[in-house]
Amino acid sequence: MIKLSYDIKNYRKDLTDLINPNDTVIELGCHVGGTTKLFSKQCKVVAVDNSPEAVEIMNNLDDVLFISGDVRLHDVLAEVFKIIQKCDVLAIDLGGGYHPDTVFKVFYIWSSTFKPKHTVIRNRGILEFFNSASGSDEDYQTAEGYLESYHDSGIPPQIKEFDLWTPSLDK
Ligand SMILES: C[S@@+](CC[C@H](N)C(=O)[O-])C[C@H]1O[C@@H](n2cnc3c(N)ncnc32)[C@H](O)[C@@H]1O
Q: The domain that contains 125 carries what CATH number?
């Protein structure tokens, strides 16, 4: 299942509804763990954020493996992949108003790699698009937390578009 929201209360509720005890959760954009703490006691959690504010607080959270890094970077994805190769739930909150194109790309790459049962995304632009678009009769959908149209070829290669589309990205 893929769940979309903008209101952080809905994002947190979607996650707590979908997460089961002992699940493996990857959380992208954990900040200082406001959401992480809701499930970290019962799950294995790998949390990633690039904010300096997150480092000390997240490193002191029990039961959470925190990685300080930019989730757009291939090296950060590869670092997490060395630790776990699959997750049950992928949570993505890079900021509700964050560029929807980037969030979609992060969703696409991370979900294709870790094949979650569920993905929960907090992003206003993606939600607005979803609520406003109407499709044709072609029945393409997924019950999983990743897109079926991704052809299974392992960890995706470096995405050059990240360099092209996000000029502020430092390497
Ligand atoms: C709204 S906050 C997340 C709030 C958190 N999910 C919660 O429930 O308390 C968004 C977070 O995404 C992080 N972020 C934004 N872009 C990122 C990126 N490219 N890589 C890693 N973290 C990013 C920011 O540093 C920030 O901490």
A: 3.40.50.720
Distance from Cα 88 to the centre of ligand 1, integer Å: 20
Residue 164 above 90 pLDDT? no
- The reply to whether ligand 1 has any atom less than 6 angstroms from the CB of 116 is no
Of ligand 1's listed atoms, the one at least distance from the Cα of 72 is 19
CB 70 near ligand 1, within 6 Å: yes
> In the prediction, which pLDDT does 149 show?
81
Domain count across the chain: 1
pLDDT (tens digit per residue) in 36-51: 999 999 999 999 999 9
Do the Cβ atoms of 83 and 119 come closer than 8 Å? no
Per-residue confidence (pLDDT) for residue 150, from 0 to 100: 72
For the chain, the straight-line distance linking the first and the last C-alpha, in angstroms and rounded, comes to 33
